[in-house]
Specification:
Layout (H helix, E strand, L loop, with lengths): L2 H11 L4 H5 L23 H6 L6 H10 L4 H8 L7 H6 L19 H6 L2 H18 L15
Amino acid sequence: MDELTAIRDEIRNHASNAWATERGYDPIYSASPRSKIVVIGQAPGRSAQESQIPWNDASGIKLRQWLGVIGSYAQKHYLGTSAKRNLTETVRAYCEYLPDRIPLVHPSPLNFRWQARHPWFETEVIPALQTLVVDALSESGKALASIDSGHE
């Protein structure tokens, strides 16, 4: 048994969590030895519990706002100095990062306002992402050539 499984079992079997275990709720967590920040919470929202994704609820959105780490943090980490001024500008310039990377926004349904304000995301970036996936899964490796990088 690995260490994370042991921790999960300990949380699940702790007396204070009996109510959650009785309802079939498993502990929700994400952990890595490389983590620089640990965020511990309790009583995840229904969408987080159902999806088994930590902080996948309204409280997670608020927490990311407080921490200042919605997608832009990951983008700055992986894109370095090539990241733009903010998340939107970086995603908008997705063609600059192809074919090795494609910056995206968080896929949470709670991100609907951002997506509504930026319809180009669904019409330009998502098709480019799908083409990259097809390319990665195909033997030909030529699908990338069909991505239209000319956008306004």
